[in-house]
Amino acid sequence: MEVKTENYQLYTELILHKSSSFSITVHTITLSLTRQDDNIIECHLTFCVTPELYQRIETEALFNLKPELRTPLTNGDFQPSPDIQIEAILKPDLLPLLLENATNADEAATYLLNLSQQQPELISEIQKNNELSENPKSPYSLLSTESWLALSVKQQQESGETGYRTFWSYASPKTLSGETPSSEEISESITDFFKDLVSGSLNATAKEFANETIGAISSFFQELTQDTPEPTPDNNTLTQPIFQAIVNFFTQDDWPFTKIQGKLALRLGYKGENGKWNCYAEAREKEEQFVFYSVCPLNAPETQRMAVAEFIARANFGIVIGNFEIDFSDGEIRYKTSIDVEGDRLSFALIKQLVYTNIATMDEYLPEIMSVISTDVSAEKAINQIEIITNTHQSSDEQKQLLSVVPADEQQKLAVNPSSQAEIQQQKEKIPERQSHILARITPDEIGQLHQALQMLEPYQRKQTQAIVEKVKRLMIARLGDLGTEVFNEAFTFFTKVKFPGIILKLIQRYSRMAAQTRLFIQKLKDWIKQYGEAADNSDINLAIEDLEKLFGRINKRLEELPTDKLLSEKELIYLLEIEQFREQLAFFDRFVKNLPENPPDGLASS
Fold it and tell me: InterPro entries, from UniProt (predicted)?
């Protein structure tokens, strides 16, 4: 087994916490990760503290510095100066939490520093809510002094180095793992520790001290086992406080933020295509609610507040998720999205849906809000202007999409006599004779990933965007062969130009999935005819193909309309009812295709 250690030099301050009332600032020197066969098995942190601070660390047994778990000082007591150096190891059950956000020492150091540099009051607020004790898998548990085991403590003096080691420096990573070791394993791990502790002979006092040490070590392993939860696929547990879930989301999603003093709320800034504004994320723990606001950068003057109120009423009528609000006392305008998670959990995906739907809506309406505030434009005219811009955008994109659609006759050629894997994949891409929208030719998963990369991620998340886009391109080429590049280019252009909120994305994905099913059934029926002979025009198979092509046409039409549809409340219900109707039809055709005989008697194909 190959063991390697990589170090990252810090030389900066790090704030660690024991409780909401006590934190310490240490001067970090090095963070190191130990790898065994490419698996990270240890994380070490080396830092310095003043002798005065060390006295408190020793008194309160921070970093698990218990008297019974340390060797004697090697060269006399510590002096009032210089600083004392401590090396500590992260508890093994918390290592996966760190590795979720880092793959090397550089990233691990950066992640810890980012957590530490956030507002101290933020961490204090979380601790006041007993987050660390209730949820040891909170990112902030990495900043707790109880999450680290001190390995050695030393001080450089004029007469030389003095210091001591702890039991944890003698234990192997396997011994420190979350599994409860046997008595033999514990004994083996502490043999060397006792040799240094009692210099090879055990007198009565030493034996008593050794018994205390074994008791302390056993208690540690028992606590470690009890504290180690079963692994789950989602880090957000049912007991996770809403405020912590919010902080986790904006930390992981790379949003800079500050905590609002005295409240479970964050202030964030956002820059859209049409302006900049402040956002606020608020946790209502008792009500089990999360609320997100986008605040218009300009308040409505008193003379324009009624006009803005009319604009808001007209806008809210066409909005499914969230609503605009105005404070008549000062003219503040904001857009609100919220969710009640009573009896459930606030997941990363739920927060993202609310946040990005919110900012996309504010960005869309902001220019016309400003025009109502700053000019004499009526509320009705401003709302109509938004619809005109949307419809114009749609027409322009549709013309470009039609130019890039593969001609039907060329698709027919691609479907004849497949002789390679690429041709077979192209055969799958064959569509009914009518030209189809790009959303009908890519998968729901590809739609979701392109929507995230090209419409949801921020400009400063360029690397993440590029990685997603390249992955989608590779998948399309693998699925479609030579057509993959052309389809990808068309999809990339579409998602770059046409913006739509998350609620429309979900509907698009449902229709896209049905388009793929319809196309698959058509192809299966045509393949059956090719294998067993031409069927009469009025045969059940040809009639089924005709009905499926009509169904595909209706689905394709919806996919053309949806991206720029205002999605009025009553329209959403129409879409959902239509989706259910289409699914029932597809279920019928699914049974029809499955019941086709594999070896039909002569003449059956034409019956």
Answer: Put_sensory_transdc_reg_YbjN
What's at 336, amino acid-wise?
K
Give the CA distances from residue 565 to residues 128, 355, 445, 503, 580, in Å, rounded to whole numbers and listed in that order.
46, 21, 21, 11, 20
Same domain for 504 and 416: yes
Please check whether residues 142 and 277 belong to one and the same domain: no
Residue with tokens 């929507």: 451
Does residue 301 sit within a domain? yes
Q: Which of 352, 322, 327 is nearest to 337 (CA)?
A: 322
Domain count of the chain? 3
How far, in Å, are 148, 503, 586 from residue 548 at the CA level? 63, 27, 9
Decide the pairing of beta strands 148-157 and 84-90.
antiparallel
Residue 143: is its pLDDT beyond 90?
no
Tell me: pLDDT of 420 over 50: no
How far does CA 40 lie from the centroid of its chain? 23
Rounded to the nearest integer, the mean pLDDT of the chain is 77
DSSP secondary structure code for residue 299 in this structure: P
Distance between CA atoms of residues 538 and 540, nearest Å: 7
Are residues 452 and 584 located together in one domain of the fold?
A: yes
What is the Cα–Cα distance from 178 to 228, expressed in whole angstroms? Answer: 7
Q: What are 526's two structure tokens?
A: 């045509």
Alpha carbon 223 to chain centroid, angstroms: 31
Q: Which helix (H) or strand (E) holds 594?
A: helix 569-594
Q: How many helices (H) and strands (E) does the chain have?
A: 19, 12
Neighbours of 579 (CB within 10 A): 17
Q: Is residue 267 within 8 Å of 258, Cβ to Cβ?
A: yes
Contact assessment for residue 433 and residue 546, using Cβ atoms and an 8 Å cutoff: no
- Torsional sign, CA 458, 461, 464, 468: positive
Percent of the chain's residues with pLDDT above 70: 73
Same domain, 322 and 452: no
Host domain of residue 557: 406-606
567 pLDDT above the threshold of 80: no
Q: Dihedral sign for Cα 59, 228, 177, 14, please.
A: negative
Q: Note whether 52 and 185 are same-domain residues.
A: yes
Helix H or strand E encompassing 353: helix 348-374
Same domain, yes or no, for 467 and 374? no
Asked if residues 324 and 315 have their Cβ atoms less than 8 Å apart, the reply is yes
List, for residues 89-110, the tens digit of each pLDDT value.
998 888 888 888 788 888 888 8
> Which has the closest alpha carbon to 287: 338, 243, 340?
340
Question: Considering Cα of 349, then 352, then 354, then 360, what sign does the dihedral take?
Answer: negative
Q: Which CATH number belongs to the domain containing residue 339 in this structure?
A: 3.30.1460.70
Does any domain span residue 233?
Answer: no
Residue 544, classed as helix, strand or coil, is helix
Residue 247 sits in the same domain as residue 361: yes
Of 346, 381, 416, the one marking the end of a domain is 381
Q: Exposed, middle or buried, 7 (CB in 10 Å: 0-12/13-18/19+)?
A: middle
Flag whether 391 is in a domain: no
What distance in Å separates the CA atoms of residue 519 and residue 140, rounded to the nearest whole number? Answer: 50
Helix (H, G, I), strand (E, B) or coil at 420: coil
Domain boundary pick from 324, 348, 381: 381
pTM: 0.38
